[in-house]
Structure formats: C-alpha cells, structure tokens
Amino acid sequence: MFAIKFGWDFHPVATKIPKSNLTADFRKDFNGLHVQTEVQFGNMARWYTDVFKFQAAYSESLTQAAVSIVPMFALAKRIDQNVVNFERATRELPSAKLSITLPILLVGVSIDQDTKIIDVSTSKFSDIKQITGKGRLNNRWRIINAFFENVPIETISETSPTGPTLEPSDDDLAEASEDDQ
Fold first, then answer.
1. Total structural domains within the chain
2. Cα–Cα distance, 105 to 12 (Å, whole number)
3. Which structural domain, as residue segments, surrounds residue 159?
4. How far apart (Å, rounded) are the C-alpha atoms in residues 61 and 66?
5. In a shared domain, residues 12 and 65
6. Which helix (H) or strand (E) covers residue 33, if one does?
C-alpha cells in the first residue's frame, strides 16, 4: 500500500473550508516541506480541479509545493477523448502564472514497448460503465489486483475478489502508528 508504507497521506483535506469534502490524492511532509500530489488520467476538466485544489491548499498553508502526474499525449489518446495530457498541461499552465502562486512539478507518464497492455473489454463486465461508473471503485480494484496476481483479465467479474485497496485497513493504520512512535 503505497500511501501507507511510504508515509504519504491518502486523501487528505485540500481546504479548511468546513464541510467542503474537497480532498487531495496524496500529501507528504518532507522535513517541513508539505508536498501535495494529484494523479489525473481523466478528463481535462478534472485536471483544472486538481490545480484549484493545489492553490486552495497552498492558500491555507496545507502545502508548499505540488506534483501533478498526468499521461503523455500518446497515452492519453489511448485512454479516451479530451483526457488530460502532459503536452497540453505544459502549454496551458503558464497562462495562469498570476493566479497560481505555488510551484507545481508536472510529471508525464508514458508507455514503451515493454508495457503490458490490458484490454479490460475482454473481462466479464458487461460494459465499461461497470468499471468506470460512479460507485464502481471495487471493480477497478478487482482488475488492478488481478493484474498483480497474474489472473487472466477474461476471468474478472463483479464476483472476483477485490483484494487490497489504498484505503488503509485497521492493521495498516496500527502499523503506521507504531512506525511513528
């Protein structure tokens, strides 16, 4: 569990506004430097929300620096239409230099000839909305964990084991608490 084992906070608040429920993906304290990270492989509009969350957290002293992880254009094109991509974000981010007042490191993720491609359309889910739809996070975890366990994608369905998720278990929280002492 990346967020727990390496000391990253998973879904920390992104603003001190009461009842806002606005959360970041990750945040970590590096000897007093609080770094907030957003990972976005969705629609470009979601990336603008991530940038807003960076600025909101910075304005309220929750973070001092930001990391935005997005796909490179070639990968974004494989995912869907109007998916955020490194090249576009690199072009558009400087236009907000008067309103964005914290440093943002933009990281582009790509695939190469050794990247294993998983065709989720061959799974036992009836359509893509069973995987990407709201409230379908457990189905995404089923696919991710099956991949790591070398389970063929053709056998994955809603009845497959979910496996571990980024939401920490009670054991993970207790272990992290022991590490802090």
1. 2
2. 19
3. 116-181
4. 12
5. yes
6. strand 33-39
